[in-house]
Amino acid sequence: MSAAGWSLKSLPDMSEQQFLLWQQLLETRTGIFVTEQRKSYLQSSLMQRMRELEYDDYQVFYDHIVNSPMGKIEWLKLVDRLTVQETRFFRDPAAFKYVAQYIKDRQAKFDKKNPLDIWSVGCSSGEEVYSLAMLSQEVLKPFNKTKFCMVTGTDISVPVLNKARQGIYSQRRIDLLSEHYKENYFSTLDAGQSEIVAGIKYNTCFAQVNILQLDEVAKSLRDIIYCQNVLIYFRRWRRQEILNHLVERLSPGGLLLIGMGEMVDWHHPELESVKGHQVTAFIKRAGHKNH
What we know:
7-stranded mixed beta sheet; Chemotaxis Receptor Methyltransferase Cher, domain 1; 2 domains; 3-stranded antiparallel beta sheet; 291 residues; alpha/beta; Rossmann fold
């Protein structure tokens, strides 16, 4: 059959046994738990890749991923499709407003030896990282401290990290930004694209991190850890495990910000919850130091 024929070929629905196998593989390797309600999403993602490779059996494709010499490379491509989530600049206005106030209130402590250190967990294609970097510039500019800031973005997907490093976005991606941000932080390219300016890129970096392996991430202390729209894909016990690792990497007085409703009724002895700002955020108690 021709490649075009394969691309149009109808594949059977995934059986319950096949779904459980793929569900377990994804959770074991990435921590992401695909619920029964998201079975169709998993199936459609697998179908797309199977058609490209001319597979018509979920079990055979599974065996290829798990057992063949090329399985590891194919797995990385598949993870990219299964884990990349929708993102945009300044996605949660209330959260960014709170971050801005937090930075402004503490700007006196940031200098060359002690720069503002922000970590964006699950940064996808970089919009969140650059939003945090632009916001930091705006807040620190009146104090002549725009150089004293670094935003690190981490994600499991190598392709989206490569896209993030490029910092090139379609006009559609930046249309909702104010004219001030467009004029000051983007340069226009051909073909309706815009690129983040070098001054902002200079204050950012990106690294591949599997959120299941946070214990292997250096325990350098961050002033702000921004972890929105990430925890929702994990079981509750795994969310607690992830958050505990993040708390260990938060400086005393540091800010941990997660998505609304991602961890209801969660408490940590080293954290104090933020009240009344339409955010789910915590401040690390100043008296606590990491062991």
